[in-house]
Amino acid sequence: MARSRPSMRPALARTVMLGEAFTLAAASAVHGGWLVAGHAHSQARTAEAVIATVLVFAALETWRRPAHARAAAIAGQGFALLGTLVGLGTIVAGIGPRTVPDVVYHVLLLAGLTAGLVWTVRCRPD
Description:
It contains 4 helices and no strands. The protein is mainly alpha-helical. The chain starts with 9 loop residues before the first helix and ends with a helix.
């Protein structure tokens, strides 16, 4: 018996993206030196803030136009995933911050974004 793909649930996609955006905003605040002293890095702060903003706009699009929720979620999470891969690349290259918390955060964020994107792509549009 073939399993049908789950239907896109805009509220769930919105919740996932807003959660991802929140963690990126917190990381941006850390790299701004506002939450944890000694971890300031202006380029990381800016990149994380931009990615968080894109995710918020994608989440808002799922609310504003539910029929386009799947496309908005794929675009938002795809952008965030690409940005996170760039962040990991800068860590590996020695350009970005290289603390253990930064590496762990990026790996966990990468796993979460990948899971969210895979779920979104596997959903059938409404």
